[in-house]
Amino acid sequence: MITEPEEEETEPEETAYETTTEETTEADEDDEEEDEDDDIYSDSSDYDFSSPVPESAMKTGSYYDTCAFVGDSHTNGLGAYGFVDKTRVFAKDGLSIKNIRESISPASIASVTPENVYLMMGTNGVAWLKPEDMISSFEDFVYEIVSYLPAANIYILSIPPVSYERATSTDPKKLIGIDKINTYNEKLLEMAEENSWYFVDTNSAVCDAYGYLDSGKTSDGVHMSKDLYKSFTSYILSHTVD
Length: 242
Hints:
Strand content: 5-15%
Distance between the termini: 70 Å
């Protein structure tokens, strides 16, 4: 009489234990999935867009096959010197932000289905246009690109400095104040932060110790030599966000 009840109680206890274990395992798996989702969300939401992209592991040149580069003659140099395939360069010499839509269409950029879009423009106009007006035109153009490529990473590149000679020229046609370049680049960072776009401080990769373009590495005080493009492209490849 005593033994039989003990055996009957033992069996349901084992069954209950096995069921609880299965339920706990499934619950743990669900929790792990939720944790993974939380990690993905945190990686995006926690990124500090108020600062330039920090140094990262160096990408190989094949990374450029996932990119599109948009801008003026500085950007054209990437294709001209062979750093980037010309089919992925959307640029025009002398391009001003004010007339960009006349030369480059977001649809053409989208046609190469880039995962990453790099934009650098402003050298043509920074000497005489108001930075606020330039930023407004720049921002509107990027919005159009995003409408075609909503999943693409947007990278805003700071424009390079000019040589000391150009920054202090007495010829109004040649003068490009370094302070105006710096102010404009600061505005670009603010724009990037407000829109959760990545800002890459390529200016710092090509300037000398005094913040100017090395006079020995430019033909006109504005455009970079191939040696400077090596520094410029290396900086891009070592400052990405995965």
